[in-house]
Fold:
Amino acid sequence: MVLIAYEGGQHVLTGADVVNANSGMYKAYTDYLDGMAPYFTLFCHYLHNGKWSSGGAWGAEEYVGQPLGEAHKLRAIFDWIAANP
Structure:
């Protein structure tokens, strides 16, 4: 069976801006991608960039051009793809 993840990604609703700005999000996201990989042939991340707020932070980066050192989810996605061609 082939499984496809549609709109994958973290779902933090309270303090999401603080959680996403924390460098621990990098490990959480790589662990998440590692966990999903055996089950999904295609994993579509929900949103590439978008403003973070306390009620939601859906983007892998908060704004276009955000330094990767601040965009922990986006850096995790790039690093994970490079390590898992």
User: Anything to note?
Assistant: The mean pLDDT is 88. The beta strands are 4-8, 42-45, 47-49, 59-61.
